[in-house]
Design brief:
This is P-loop containing nucleoside triphosphate hydrolase protein. Keywords: Hydrolase. This protein is an alpha/beta fold and about 725 residues long. Among the domains are: about 180 residues, no CATH class; about 60 residues; about 170 residues, P-loop containing nucleotide triphosphate hydrolases (Rossmann fold), CATH 3.40.50; about 60 residues. Helices cover about 45% and strands about 15% of the residues. The strands form 4 sheets. It has a 6-stranded mixed beta sheet with strand order 6-7-8-5-9-10, sandwiched between helices. Helix 5 crosses helix 7 and helix 16 crosses helix 20. The longest helix is centred in the middle third of the chain and has 43 residues. The two termini are about 50 Å apart.
Length: about 725
């Protein structure tokens, strides 16, 4: 048993069962780890030893789990917010889990850090490196370390081609010195990251490296006159050989191929040629994340881990990424993929589900709809089996009682023996009638070894407590009329000072009317004007031309796509601020303490999570819930939601979809999640079929999908599917298929 410890904001302790047998030629694209335990503590604990103490001081994520990944398979990691998905990904990527080979090449994209989280451990660079690089250069550099190689070539060329007889030796030693410093940095990081037996091993390796660096330093600082002619000749020759090897790595044909692949990936993710030439430091957070995603996709790796890669992509980028990952999977030697995403349509590219629940990992070969339907079928089958068996048990029990009664009355030992035999069957042999594989149960095959009973009881799987999001009913309007309307609206941003020409129109000739109960979907690619339209509806900006009117009694609820970042900033500004305290500040005049707690609880922030956990420590999904509470306590008539599903787990997305589908108010929705828009706006069920309402709630309710393109808005008669079909055509053209 071995343990690892990450010295970071939290401590991640991982243990697993270790085998003493070495397997020759391991496949680094597979993992097969038994008895995996992962515990997260709030910070590094000095003197923490052993699994028991770690558990008592932290949160247990996994307990005796099996981590089995097959080479080349595509796994969708699913589980509710807070079950430890990100922790598991981090533990795998940083090789904190005993049994993950050190030679395995890992690439991870984490949604929390676009800056440097997607580089392989072997190519980690020091902080601050690459500032000012253009996007294309940065992506290529992360994948190939091209600039490092070119810098070494420059140093060696200067020494070899210069007139100084000691120049080649000095250059050779300079390159080796810098390489040793980088290796020392990695060994130091490795030693700080690990504990237990492997931590001891890492610290020994660090001490050996420190000794090696110290020994080389005296050689590096050696005066020319102290260098023998033999050493000079030997290292001059080695410098020439090293230069030749490095020059092979930057062959124009190799670099041209890498650059071509990088450009294709960046284009697929929405980068224009101009944006590829921009410095990474000038990009917004969303574009930095796309840059990090492009770098992850370009690298050669054994295991590729993508955590919510679609968060900052429009539908063009999402469908392109879907097709790209599928194409990679069909190549000769594909990497193993672990994917986290709330977008049900997107994760359909995965071959398997990896489910984290109740501190266990379970596996399902198939997609999410198949998994959900199989669970329903299995529960129905086991329920039917148990009901039939309960009837059989009752009949046998009655027979036993009758035989005992008759046997004692007539002193009939056969009846008494028969009763005992049947009682033994009732006690020991009633239970599952089928094996785990679905065939007829056989004792010597399916339950080897000694057991108190020969069969386990029929265990009907209990459904998880469903997530129910309750949206408060909007108040009466008192008199009819449109909630919001835009007539011939146009918008352009003010021209910069000193610029004579007017800025181009962002929106033009927009006509939109929103009534109580309406479901309006706004779709379009990035840059089409969606956010500007949403800002006009939310009265964040005013139109340049045309008229914008609203109902005099309208209460509007606006969820901004930047809401989570704004709450994180509030949490940093006031470290003690909790969800309950924030709602009290904003709603104290309208709601009492109990009402606020009830609202937070109905949205998934119950009890101490609301009152004791600071806002700065809430996860992305919990911050979305908090923002919804800030909106819903006002009981709005209309909800304007801009990318509200970002950061939510798929079960919460499903619950929100269901809640919005039947809510009495109006909903204006901007989202790249096709499944979510189909449900909320088009009213489709979980199986994407039309859903008829029993209570007539859809009578008079308009369900409309508009597409924004180049500032103009058009109604899509074919809804989301029409938009998706158009984007699919563009992706096929982009990929040359």
């Amino acid at each position: 048993m071995t343990s690892m410890e990450a010295e970071s904001a939290v401590t991640i302790l991982c243990t697993s069962k270790q085998t003493r047998f070495n397997i020759g030629s391991p496949n680094y694209r597979e993992l097969d780890i038994e008895g995996l335990n992962i515990t997260v503590a709030s910070g590094p604990k000095s003197g923490t030893k052993g699994k028991g103490k770690a558990k008592s001081e932290g949160t247990e994520i996994l307990n005796n789990a099996k981590l089995r990944l097959k080479a080349g398979q595509r796994y969708a990691l699913i589980g509710r917010n807070g079950t430890g998905k990100s922790t598991l990904l981090k533990a795998i990527a940083e090789k904190l889990i005993p049994g993950v080979p050190e030679e395995t090449r890992m690439v991870i994209l984490q949604q929390t850090d676009a800056g440097d989280s997607n580089t392989d451990e072997s190519s980690a660079s020091t902080p601050g490196k690459g500032e000012g690089r253009a996007v294309l250069e940065e992506v290529i550099e992360r994948a190939t370390s091209k600039q490092e190689v070119q810098q070494e070539i420059k140093v060696l060329s200067g020494g070899v081609d210069g007139g100084d007889p000691f120049g080649a030796l000095r250059a050779f030693r300079k390159v080796n010195h810098e390489r040793l410093q980088k290796e020392l940095f990695l060994k130091d990081k490795d030693a700080r990251l690990r504990s237990g037996a492997r931590g001891m091993q890492a610290r020994k390796a660090l001490i050996a490296m420190e000794k090696k660096v110290a020994e080389f330093r005296s050689e590096y600082e050696q005066k020319d006159e102290a260098i023998s002619p033999e050493i000079l000749a030997k290292e001059t020759s080695e410098a020439a050989d090293m230069l030749g090897e490095l020059e092979l790595q930057v062959e124009p044909s190799e670099l041209a191929e890498t650059e071509s692949k990088a450009k294709k990936i960046l284009t697929g993710l929405g980068f224009t040629e101009a944006r590829m030439d921009q410095p990474v430091s000038s990009l917004s957070g969303g574009w930095k994340m796309r840059t990090a995603l492009a770098a992850a996709l370009l690298q050669d790796t054994d295991i590729l881990i993508l955590d919510e890669p679609t968060n900052f992509l429009d539908l063009l980028g999402i469908i392109w990424l879907q097709r790209h990952l599928t194409a990679v999977a069909e190549s000769a030697d594909p990497p193993t993929l672990i994917l986290v995403s709330h977008d049900r349509d997107f994760i359909s590219l995965c071959t398997d589900l990896l489910i984290i629940k109740d501190k266990e990992l379970t596996y399902f070969h198939g997609d999410l709809p198949m998994y959900e339907s199989s669970r329903v079928e299995k529960k129905a089958y086991l329920t039917k089996m148990k009901e039939a068996q309960d009837k059989q048990k009752e009949h046998i029990q009655q027979t036993v009682q009758r035989n005992v009664r008759e046997g004692k009355t007539k002193d009939d030992q056969n009846k008494i023996r028969q009763a005992k035999s049947r009682q033994k069957k009732l006690d020991d042999r009633m239970g599952m009638e089928v094996s785990a594989k679905g065939g007829r149960f056989k004792l010597n095959r399916d339950l080897v070894g000694y057991h108190l009973t020969s069969r386990s009881d029929i265990d009907i799987p209990q459904d998880e407590r469903p997530i129910n999001l309750i949206l408060p009913d909007p108040p009466e309007l008192r008199f009819p009329g449109a909630l919001l309307s835009l007539e011939k609206v146009a918008f352009r941003y003010p021209k910069d000072a000193g610029t004579k020409t007017a800025s181009p129109l962002v929106l033009q000739d927009i006509n939109l009317s929103i009534n109580m109960g309406d479901r309006i979907g706004i779709v379009g690619l990035n840059g089409s004007g969606k956010s500007t339209l949403i800002n006009l509806l939310a009265e964040e900006t005013k139109p340049t031309a045309g008229t914008s009117t609203k109902h005099p009694r309208l209460k509007l609820g606006y969820y901004s796509q930047h809401a989570v970042e704004a709450l994180q900033q509030m949490g940093r500004s006031d470290p003690a601020l909790t969800s309950l305290a924030l709602l009290k500040q904003e709603a104290a005049d309208e709601l009492d303490d109990g009402d606020i707690r009830a609202l937070l609880g109905s949205l998934g922030l119950p009890g101490r999570l609301a009152s004791d956990v600071p806002v700065r420590k809430l996860s992305g999904g919990q911050l979305v819930r908090l923002e919804m509470a800030r909106i819903l306590w006002k009981r709005p008539h209309c909800l304007v939601l801009d990318e509200v599903t970002t950061h939510l787990d798929y079960e919460t997305v499903a619950a929100l979809r269901q809640a919005l589908k039947h809510w009495d108010g109006a909903v204006v929705l901007v989202s790249h999640d096709r499944w979510f828009v189909r449900g909320v706006v088009e009213g489709l069920g979980d199986d994407e079929s039309g859903e008829e309402s029993d209570d007539g709630e859809d009578v008079g309710r308009r369900r409309l999908v508009y597409r924004l393109r180049a500032g103009k808005m058009n109604l899509l008669e074919g809804g989301v599917q029409e938009f998706e079909d158009g984007v699919e055509k563009r992706v096929r053209k982009l990929m040359g298929s």
